[in-house]
Write a structure and sequence with these properties.
It comes from Nyssa sinensis. This protein has about 100 residues and is an all-alpha fold. It folds into two domains: about 45 residues, no CATH class; about 35 residues. About 30% of the residues lie in helices and about 0% in strands. The longest helix has 19 residues. The chain is elongated, with a radius of gyration of 28 Å. The termini are far apart. The model has no long low-confidence stretch (mean pLDDT about 75).
Length: about 100
């Protein structure tokens, strides 16, 4: 029967991506630990590829509950400025 060939599936790494020794390494997998092409990717996904994850950073409590008073003041000043620019567009484009 022509065209009835057995399907050869590549060996998979621990993340279930194809191991293709001898092929170029998948740069996206090396960078992120993931691959959008999944098992159909033509590149090599080595077992030892580990992705470095940034250490968690502490966030000041005030940022969890909203802007600080200084940030609020700046936002209000920007809002007023934007309203003025909408009302008086000639300020941006003065007549010569």
């Amino acid at each position: 029967m022509a065209g009835n060939w057995p399907v050869v599936r590549p060996a998979l790494n621990n993340s279930r991506y194809p191991l293709r020794p001898g092929e170029t390494k998948c740069w996206y997998f090396l960078k992120t630990g993931e691959c959008n092409f999944d098992i159909t990717c033509k590149f090599h996904h080595p077992q030892s590829a580990c992705v470095q994850v940034a250490a968690p950073t502490l966030v000041p409590a005030q940022s969890l509950f909203g802007p600080s008073s200084q940030q609020y003041e700046i936002r209000m000043e920007l809002k007023v400025l934007m309203e003025l620019l909408v009302q008086f567009p000639s300020f941006l484009h003065p007549k010569k």
